[in-house]
What we know:
Elements: H1 2-27, H2 32-43, H3 56-85, H4 88-104, E1 109-112, H5 116-127, E2 132-136, H6 139-144, E3 151-154, H7 160-165, E4 173-176, H8 181-194, E5 203-207, H9 211-220, E6 224-226, H10 228-241, H11 243-253, E7 261-266, E8 275-276, H12 277-280, H13 282-286, E9 289-294, E10 300-302, E11 309-310, E12 315-320, H14 322-332
Parallel strand pairs: 1-2, 1-4, 2-3, 4-5, 5-6
Antiparallel strand pairs: 7-12, 8-11, 9-10, 9-12
Helix pairs in contact: 1-2, 1-3, 8-9, 10-11
Amino acid sequence: MILRELRGSVIAVLVVLIYGTVGYHLVEGWSILDSFWMVFITVTTIGFGEVHPLSDAGRILTLTIIVAGFGVVSYSAGTITRFVAEGGLARELRRRSQEKLMRELYDHFIIVGFGRLGREVAQDLVHANQRVVVIDSEASRVENCEDLGVTAIHGDATHDAVLKMAGISRATGLAVATASNPVNILVTLSARQLATSPERRLTILTRVDEEEAARKAQLAGADGVVSPFGIGGTHMAHRLLRPHSAHFLQLAFARAYGELSMEDVEILDDPDSHGRIGSLRFRERFGVILVAVKKKTGELITAPGPSVEIEQGDVIVVVGRPEQITELVGSLN
Length: 333
């Protein structure tokens, strides 16, 4: 609202300057420069005196310029003061800085919805040193993102323009985590249509609370669906039936526990990382335990034996200390 008033103030000032300049030029026959200078010193009340002697018509014109100019200057000064006092200037500078940051973001993660689930996702991603952009329609939640040091956009993610602003075509992953199934499905559909970069495929995980919504989300383009209630129930059952293994997995994924980590490691084109697991000796060289292999064909091999072949494009799932996994990743890059 205030930005519109500021634009209106600028337009009003320009109208007064043009009106006076043209008026003096036509009424008094002055040059454009002399006419503009006369309007300028009149509106700003500098008071250097008349550029040239004025005729009666010129004096009447000057009176109208004084009245109009005083009104415009007073209105503009009030608008600017209110803009600064209400934090509009800071918000505008922050918005411009945010837009510049968005244009430079690549391989980041977008979270739609900063409720309890969205906040947990954001905290885990930040803990993993990933770049995160949050989209939420509630201003209070957007302000809370600053506590995490996360870039946030106040807007409706069902609008394509908001997803584009978040850099959807350059993102690595999207977590759709609002409390509304219809909104989540619509955002999923929009994101899948917008993420058409041939260089990368956007991974989309969508929150759902019903089985029918899960099916629709997958049809809309979700790579996976997440039910907070289903996950919570499964975790409770595991803690009851297999408390020790459940506790181990919880530690492996907990951001507060820094002694153990479970990571996906992609096998690149380094020939030293290709071959049979037995000959690669990941355990002996790095101290990590290889628990699964996701073949580039999509096949998942759990508890792989020493004869399993590792090839370019495969992804291995390893467990170990963070520094051990970092060393392994460094050796493969």
